[in-house]
Specification:
The complex is a heterodimer. Chain A has 15 helices and no strands. By secondary structure, chain A is mostly helical. Chain A has one domain: ABC transporter involved in vitamin B12 uptake, BtuC (Orthogonal Bundle), CATH 1.10.3470. In chain B, α1 packs antiparallel against α8 and α9 (about 210-220) packs across α10 (about 225-245). Chain B is globular and about 55 Å long. The termini of chain B are far apart. The relative contact order of chain B is 0.21. The chains are: A mainly alpha, B mainly alpha. Chains A and B meet through α6, α13 and α15 of A and α3, α4, α9 and α11 of B.
Chain lengths: ~350, ~290
């Protein structure tokens, strides 16, 4: 092997190991903070890992928390391939969840799960998709940046959901909706298999897995996906090549909304069986982190979501010793290290 | 009636101060070409710095200095990542917001033993908001910023790097230095907004920025990236909130008032109420 070949291989390995190094650096930073307040990071991290990955319940919790992150991660990744930055996952998830809860509650209690579950899923997708269609419309029709409209619509969605829970679908005096029909309950894995006892991980996990595979297949194995990536690489060139770019912008954003909306299926149908205000807040923003860590690759998003799910639940296991937000810091640091190292690594080559 | 109007007026000003400062700061950053989504986190860091500073020393001045230092350090981080390393400005901003929530809660618990709030601090003891030094500073900062941005060489360079970085560079402007200054000013002003909030409520509470950074961003957009425009929008949003506070509960749903700034911004972007167009090179890292 000649010298250049070796150098190319080295830089490829270096590039592939970048996310891993970022995660290690973030844990290191977390360790420094733990030392700074006079605690032992080895002990804290040890406890976190043994209580998450060391028990069936802990693993179940991690999987349960990774499920929505796969969905919101995909909701960022798919439009990202078309050069669009959907940071509206927060709002799309919130609207999907409230629609899922409202429709689920309106179903007849005797309706068979074979009908009730698909109806609940479609409701969640339609909710998220309709919210994302506003972004898509403003982008294609008025040329407004999807980033700004996403932010504005996230907060509008929080307010709208708050209003709907207070005045429409909520139980008076509480900030939650009524319970959905039993038929729409998504079976939990512990009930089906006995694995992960008492943890809320449910069939939505497999839905998320299937969707990640589907997004991968669409993006890399279909003509649509090829065109989508062409739009992302150079919109003008794609347009001259005869690709209907507006169609790809619209469809990728609306599909992203449907994906984010499905967060409601995991939360409402698989876990709470109602929507409590604020219940899914934060998953949209973390989805951005999940997608960015692995350069928006639909399959690697599964690994990324697992890591963020681990950190999310991990905080709760050590909250008695140090603040659980130490892992929020680690999550933020992972992203900062990953985006900062892009350039730094290029310079090293 | 007059008495009510005075109360209403003062209430509006008090609500407006954080929006005024943060949106003015954002104007500097974005006019230089750097999107600053980290406003929310910068406000939070500022509030935390102010509380720690005053709690440890008893001095409000030290509190403000701590707030400013934290704001500038965190803004420098945003600048380093986005200007020096040319990483994605939006991702950096969002990550810094997550960092701010995590860091402040982590040290809140470590220092005060509570996950939700700090101990009481004195704040700045003035009878009305009109005499509050941070308010007075905001009052002066707007006309001053208008002069700086439109009448000084620095302002010209700031606008040039945001509108056309290549052209500015070819005329000998150091684009990256100007952008760094824009981001640092933004960090200092957002942190000051946080200090004002913390002094007003005499403590730090978790997540106390409560979306104000994003409202400030909306105000800047509606204000068409100008200081006086941002001030007008900030006051409008604050007045709407004050109206809602004074109405009997339930007369207008709180949520409508909460959503108003964002809906108005969407309308402004679409062009229904005067088209808002960002600086041409906003969000684009400068490659020589």
């Amino acid at each position: 092997m000649d010298k250049n070949q070796t150098r190319m291989n080295t830089s490829k390995y270096l590039e592939a190991s970048r996310p891993i190094l970022a995660v290690l650096a973030a844990f290191l930073l977390g360790g420094v903070l733990i030392i700074a307040i006079g605690k032992n990071p080895v002990e804290i991290y040890g406890k976190m890992f043994s209580m998450t990955l060391g028990t069936g319940y802990g693993v179940g919790q991690v999987l349960f928390r990774a499920t929505p992150l796969v969905l919101t991660g995909l909701a960022v990744a798919l439009p990202f391939k078309a050069g669009l930055f959907n940071i509206g996952g927060e709002g799309q998830a919130a609207i999907g969840t409230i629609v899922c809860a409202a429709i689920g509650a309106a179903l007849s209690p005797s309706l068979s799960p074979m009908l009730a579950i698909p109806i609940g899923l479609i409701a969640a997708m339609l909710g998220g998709a309709s919210w994302a269609s506003i972004i898509a419309l403003l982008k294609t029709r008025f040329g407004v940046s999807e980033v700004i409209t996403s932010i504005m619509l996230n907060f509008t969605a929080y307010a709208l959901v708050g209003y709907l829970i207070t005045y429409q679908f909520g139980i008076e005096g509480t900030m939650r909706t009524v319970e959905i029909s039993h038929g729409a309950f998504m079976p939990r894995l512990d009930a089906l298999t006995g694995l992960f006892p008492r943890s809320p991980v449910n069939l939505s996990l497999f839905l998320a897995l299937a969707l990640a595979t589907a997004v991968y297949a669409v993006v890399y194995k279909t003509k649509y996906g090829y065109e989508l990536r062409a739009v992302g690489l150079n919109l003008e060139a794609a347009r001259y090549a005869g690709i209907n770019t507006n169609f790809h912008v619209m469809t990728s954003l609306i599909a992203a909304g449907a994906l984010a909306g499905l967060v409601g299926a995991n939360y409402v149908m698989g876990y709470k069986h109602y929507y409590e205000a604020g219940g899914v807040n934060g998953v949209g923003f973390l989805g951005i982190a999940v997608a960015m860590l692995v350069n928006s690759h639909p399959l690697w998003i599964l690994a990324s979501a697992l890591l963020f799910g681990l950190l999310d639940y991990g905080g709760l296991t050590i909250n008695a010793d140090v603040s659980k937000e130490i892992f929020l810091v680690v999550q933020a640091a992972v992203i900062l290290f990953v985006i900062a190292s892009q350039k730094a690594f290029k310079q090293m080559e | 009636m007059i008495e009510f109007l005075i109360v209403f007026f003062l209430q509006t000003l008090r609500i407006a101060v954080p929006y005024l400062l943060a949106s003015l700061g954002a104007t500097y950053s974005e006019r230089s070409g750097v999107i600053n989504l980290a406003l929310e986190g910068l406000i939070l860091f500022g509030a935390f710095g102010a509380v720690i500073g005053q709690y440890e020393t008893g001095s409000a001045v030290v509190g403000v200095l701590c707030a400013l230092s934290l704001g500038i350090i965190v803004a420098a981080l945003h600048g380093y990542i986005t200007i020096t390393l040319k990483a994605n400005q939006i991702v950096s901003g969002i990550a810094i917001n997550i960092l701010a929530i995590g860091m402040t809660k982590f040290f809140l618990k470590a220092i005060f033993g509570s996950a939700s709030n700090s101990e009481r601090i004195e704040g700045i003891d003035v009878p009305v908001v009109l005499l509050d030094p941070i308010f007075l500073f905001a009052l002066v900062a707007f006309p001053l910023s208008h002069l700086i941005i439109y009448k000084t060489p620095f302002g010209l360079r700031l606008r040039a790097t945001g509108d056309n970085a290549e052209a500015a560079d070819s005329l000998g402007v150091n684009v990256n230095v100007i952008r760094f200054l824009g981001v640092l000013i933004s960090g200092a002003l957002a942190a000051l907004a946080g200090a004002f909030l913390a002094f007003q409520q005499h403590s730090f509470t978790a997540d106390m920025s409560a979306g104000r950074g994003y409202i400030a961003l909306a105000a800047m957009i509606i204000g068409k990236w100008t200081p006086f425009g941002a001030a007008g929008a900030s006051l409008l949003f604050a007045a709407t909130e004050a109206v809602q506070l004074n109405l009997q509960s339930g007369a207008i749903p709180t949520q409508l008032v909460q959503a108003l700034p964002y809906i108005v911004t969407l309308l402004a972007l679409v062009g229904f109420i005067g088209k808002s167009t960002p600086p041409r090179d906003l969000g684009r890292p400068f490659e020589k």
